[in-house]
């Protein structure tokens, strides 16, 4: 071995050692159930890249998976496809439509097509801002309603079909019949012992009830159904953080995100870490469908969000009325919910940040509330600081790609039009 080869060998060893250390540090981090927002987003981005790398020459995905993959991409990217603005994405959506319509060639009345499959079609169509009641001349909503009446009672697997159909109808803005809710109440009763797919079924039921509850707030059966599913799920998390499979764990996380961890007391961070350890170096989670299901979960989204996807071209930013300014406000929870919510506030020109926040809280007291201490944010939406963990609220200003922590009193901060402020809960930056 000459001197050059010796040096090259030493460098390779050093790289291997450094790489091994980084892997060990990452595994230790995940094993302890510590997942940051940036890590969660990185896992989502990696999953999306993996999904896109598997696209076929027809711009769809092998095995008839285009329908569910498009839904996953729309949720994960908040509008991967937008109003035919890009050729490749538009081609994938057309391929999805073709795959749905091809079923009619074999089964014109959809007598042999399972109701949960049609539910997946409806959710996917909604996610691309199309009307499932006017899908290439076919009213899929009417078909789904008729399918609902054909689902038998008396078994959990049939109840899961009813849940899937009810959720799709609710996502479409259609009133879910009380008969369907009664059927779910009677049949969706997971066993305490071995129960195949009960974790998945209970999690989806919680998501469905969240949607239906917004439609029918006075329906007393909904709370009873939710209580039963939550009671089952909360004791099913394993010591390692998972719920047995990646699919089951993903759905359990989504259920907890929707109702909150106070209602469904599971360790979401530990569950996230468990799922992330299953991601391979290409970004996948085994099957393409599992990857498409997991990707949106990493940014706090679920099938409930199909109706909120931004797949329309956003109109140009409008100038605020005279004497007004537009402020972007982000509430970011890096600990509990592991997600951020952005909104636009119209405020009086020249108002300080405290005045802007107070006015917004007065307009929407149930969705935005805060307290201050010594001129700084202390609590937001009842989430209090936890000094023993080093968790507190901070105010940041986003300038370009940078975020700067502001230590001034809110009264001394004078926002300008289109400024962006972030109220962040987590460890101090």
Fold and architecture overview:
It is a single chain. The model is unreliable at 1-31 (pLDDT under 50). The chain has helices spanning 3-31, 37-53, 66-77, 87-106, 115-127, 140-150, 156-171, 178-187, 198-215, 220-233, 246-259, 268-276, 288-297, 353-363, and strands at residues 324-333, 339-348, 370-373, 376-380, 391-399, 402-406, 420-427. It has a five-stranded mixed beta sheet with strand order 2-1-7-5-6, with helices on one face. It has two domains: 33-308, Glycosyltransferase; 324-427, Ferric Hydroxamate Uptake Protein, Chain A, domain 1 (Beta Complex), CATH 2.170.130. It has 14 helices and seven strands. Helix content is 48%, strand content 12%. With 429 residues, it is α+β, with helices and mostly antiparallel strands. The N and C termini lie far apart (49 Å). Helix 2 packs antiparallel against helix 13, helix 6 (140-150) runs antiparallel to helix 7 (156-171) and helix 7 runs antiparallel to helix 8.
Q: What would you report as the Rg, rounded to the nearest angstrom?
A: 24 Å
Regarding CATH, which class of the largest domain? Mainly Alpha
> Which stretches of 5+ consecutive residues score pLDDT under 50?
1-31
Strand content: 5-15%
The count of helical stretches stands at: 14
Q: What's the number of structural domains?
A: 2
Q: Average pLDDT value?
A: 87
Largest sheet: 5 strands, mixed
Order of helices and strands: HHHHHHHHHHHHHEEHEEEEE
Give the neighbour order of strands across the main sheet: 2-1-7-5-6
Number of separate strands = 7
The class by helix and strand makeup works out as: alpha+beta
Query: Percent of residues in helical segments?
Result: 40-55%
Note the overall shape: globular
CATH fold group of the largest domain: Glycosyltransferase
